[in-house]
Specification:
about 600 residues; Beta-Lactamase; Alpha-Beta Plaits; TIM Barrel; 3 domains; 8-stranded mixed β-barrel; 23 helices
């Protein structure tokens, strides 16, 4: 094999210094980390520098004068000079000669049949004075590390590292592509927006590492329900999106949603724990529910939240009226934020009466919204939005502070010392025990109210949402001397074990059972059972929604401890209740009011 570079090929000068210059050029090119090679005008190999010899596996190989195909045959199938790669190389050689100018591009080759390597390649054609092609200078620069870094950056930018699914960015790009295809070919397209139910509770109870493992298991379960052509992505948190490409029927998306819900009915085994995690699904379809990616995504999100508001663990198909309702909800949330800032909220108070003495023994603070231009807005119209948006947390803290401050004002004015009942929302209670107890401590300190004159009302569903955390918080509050009552008793969980586990002082019978107590045997039986159960556990029992003397008499005969309702008093502002407390006489239990 000759390593001499022909001077007529490189147009070296013809002077006596030719050999010296030839040697210098040879040495310089051999020192280059890039692979440098020369071919003649017929594409036959003339010379390769040291880096090229090592790269192409040419040690001890006589390559001089061989074509690409002959060299590939000589080196064998395991070499990077495979027949396919040599054909590619010959093709780019020809492009450079035909263009009469340098050609630049990327090539990918296999070294030892395993490692894929990437090269930046420049091929410069060489021509003689007569214009005939005389040869080709080629340079290959290994850019494998740069390409690997680029691939890693591209992966991190487009894929979720936890589940390996496309992230929101890549999903929107893919969605745009399949949507364009659906438009061009007049195909159906469906998108399912999935959100795990109460995933936040799982994270808080078991830790984020546990939640991450659950998300990986969720991903596998979803994949088991879909076709290879369907596109699944994790949009963030516990939100997943699924594109059903070209479904055969308009109802296929709903059937897929039902399969997913059924799949989630089986518990997940995470680190030895059985976890029950349900899913709420919103469905939107092209061309019926939107014409672009953002509109379809937004509508699917709206449908998913409708599924959550209506009970979770179900799917909803988007309809136009959902957008109208969502816009109204967004507007209401905006007005609620303004109401909190401008102090448009106020409290009304409803007395609670002891059935044995007829005396007022407490009161419940009830939130009202004095909305400009609308008058008093009942809580049923804005509390759900406050809960969903998280505004219930600052609103609830305001309610607690206002109620405690007012109660202390009544006591300082020489009025009877009564217990003030304040409702606590699930969002307030679900933060953490330290926040809840510290917030209550701070309010009591600022208002000066003694803890024994505060009663916190919780619903059954709130109490049982996270039993361990609930027990911890309730015991801390109870240790301070605060009373605990369960509101709307009988409408939530059927399990009664929490009555002995938690430090509860009072059960409040829901008004739905009291309403028909005198002519509905089932309601009467429930009320009797609650009274008996409460007394057997040394708990007080108070009935809500008492509006008639017949209801009053029935409850008195059954031994109910107290009542609250329109029969005695409607909820009223602080000024009106102040006047009542100054002149009220014991309620006449045994006669009509």
């Amino acid at each position: 094999m000759s390593s001499k570079i022909h001077k007529d090929l490189l147009h070296f000068p013809a002077a006596s210094q030719d050999r010296q210059i030839d040697a210098m050029m040879h040495e310089l090119m051999d020192l280059s980390p890039d692979a440098i090679f020369f071919k003649d005008g017929d594409g036959r190999w003339l010379w390769v520098n040291g880096a090229g010899v090592q790269l192409f596996g040419l040690e001890g190989i006589s390559y001089y004068g061989l074509s690409d195909q002959e060299l590939a045959h000589l080196l064998g199938p395991d070499s990077c000079f495979t027949r396919h790669h040599m054909q590619s190389c010959s093709g780019t050689d020809e492009k450079a000669w035909q263009a009469g100018a340098p050609w630049r591009g990327e090539e990918c080759v296999l070294v030892n049949g395993e490692l894929t390597r990437h090269f930046d390649v420049i091929k410069t054609p060489l021509f003689g004075p007569d214009g005939a092609r005389r040869g080709l200078l080629g340079i290959r620069r290994d850019i494998s590390e740069q390409m690997q870094a680029y691939s890693k950056i591209h992966y991190l930018a487009n894929y979720d590292s936890l589940t390996g699914l496309p992230n929101r960015t890549l999903f929107q790009e893919q969605f745009a592509q399949v949507l364009a295809t659906a438009k061009a070919q007049e195909q159906l397209l469906a998108m399912l927006f999935l959100d795990l139910d109460r995933f936040k509770d799982i994270n808080e109870a078991h830790g984020h590492g546990f939640g991450d493992t659950l998300l990986q298991s969720v991903t596998k379960r979803i994949k088991g329900c879909i076709r290879a052509s369907d596109m699944l992505a994790r949009l963030g948190g516990d939100e997943f999106a699924l594109i059903q490409v070209n479904p055969s029927h308009v109802d296929d998306a709903e059937r897929l949603a039902q399969r997913l819900i059924q799949a989630f009915s089986r518990p997940f085994n995470i680190h030895g724990h059985e976890i029950h995690s349900t899913v709420s699904i919103g469905i939107t379809r092209y061309p019926f529910d939107g014409q672009d990616v953002q509109q379809l995504l937004q509508n699917a999100d709206i449908a998913m939240y409708r599924a959550k508001r209506e009970g979770r663990n179900q799917s909803r198909i988007y309809t136009a009226d959902m957008s109208t309702q969502t816009q109204a909800r967004v507007a209401l949330e905006k007005n609620l934020r303004r109401a909190l800032a401008k102090r448009e909220f106020l409290l009304h108070y409803q007395p609670q009466v002891d059935l044995q003495t007829g005396q007022i023994v407490g009161m419940e603070a009830l939130l009202r919204w004095q909305r400009p231009g609308f008058g008093i807005v009942p809580p049923a119209e804005f509390i759900p939005v406050a809960e969903e948006s998280g505004l219930i947390i600052p609103i609830g803290e305001w309610v607690l502070r206002e109620a405690c401050t007012q109660n202390k004002l009544w006591q300082d004015a020489g009025l009877p010392s009564l217990r003030m009942a304040v409702n606590i929302s699930a969002r307030q209670f679900g933060l953490n025990g330290r926040f809840m107890t510290e917030m209550v401590d701070q309010v009591l300190k600022e208002s000066g109210l003694m803890p024994e004159y505060l009663e916190l009302e919780l619903t059954e569903s709130l109490v049982m949402a996270n039993p361990e955390q609930t027990a911890h918080i309730l015991h801390r509050l109870k240790d301070r001397g605060i009373s605990i009552s369960v509101d709307d008793f009988g409408t939530g969980y059927s399990s009664l074990s929490y009555l002995k586990r938690f430090p509860i002082d009072k059960l409040k019978i829901d008004r739905s059972f009291v309403r028909d107590i005198t002519h509905d045997d089932a309601d009467a039986a429930i009320v009797n059972a609650v009274i008996s159960l409460g007394h057997s556990l040394n708990l007080q029992v108070i009935a809500e929604g008492v509006e008639t003397t017949e209801q009053l008499e029935y409850l008195r005969q059954e031994g109910c401890d107290g009542i609250q309702g329109y029969l005695f008093s409607r909820p009223m502002p602080a000024i009106a209740l102040t006047q009542m407390l100054r002149k009220v006489r014991p309620f006449e239990i045994n006669s009509s009011k």
